[in-house]
Amino acid sequence: AGVAAPTDVVHTHGDRLLVLLSVYERGVFLYEHHPAVVPLLYLSEHGKMQTRHGQGMKKLSVVIVSYNVKYYLEQCLDSLLRALQDIEAEVLVVDNHSHDGSVDYLRRRFADVNFIACNHNNGFAHANNIAIKQAEGEYVLLLNPDTLVGEHVLINALQFMDAHPRGGALGVKMLTDSGSPAPESRRGLPRPLTAF
Fold first, then answer.
1. Cα dist. 107→66, 70, 100, 141 in Å?
2. pLDDT greater than 60 at residue 126
3. Are 65 and 127 in contact (CB under 8 A)?
4. Which of 27, 94, 184, 187 has the greatest CB tally within 10 Å of its CB?
5. How many CB atoms lie within 10 A of CB 29?
6. How far apart (Å, rounded) are the C-alpha atoms in residues 93 and 70?
7. What is the pLDDT of residues 16-70, one digit of tens each?
8. Please, are residues 147 and 182 in contact by the beta-carbon 8 Å criterion?
9. Of 42, 34, 46, which is closest to residue 5 (Cα–Cα)?
10. For residue 192, pLDDT beyond 80
11. Which residues of 131-149 are buried (b: 16+ CB within 10 A; e: fewer)?
């Protein structure tokens, strides 16, 4: 993972995704990184405004891109919904033209999740852009479908972002299935030399 190619850039809202700190504090990293590598939480274009429907703002929009991983995604959604219990949130899953029946299988199990079924697989960044453009949360979380979310991770991340208004994005400390730190969660700022 290095610097993203121009065609693989995720659409950003406002300027807070780009105004990033290089700070490590209490297990939370704030830095600029390609969203395919580390789940990122950032302030959406809506900020603290009303939604376009005139209703109260959701605190968090969770975006997940899926391709032929229905069982991983099922576990991810189970853990995610537990972590979202006390958060005003929406979940948007973009299915990138899976052939394993993911959408039908999961739609029956997760009625509150917004599933967006694509007719073509146009790539990870394009799928994220589809959901981000529909997102109505103050913050947007890009989450990989093979992730299990700890019950307090999102509350802590949102509190951290609220307390650091200059922060543009954060990535959490990730653990492997054995509980050891995942090395990909501790990468530093991407620089041209690290891409080679």
1. 13, 11, 13, 20
2. yes
3. yes
4. 94
5. 21
6. 11
7. 332 222 222 333 333 333 333 334 455 555 444 333 334 567 999 999 999 999 9
8. no
9. 34
10. no
11. bbeebbbbbbbbbbbebeb
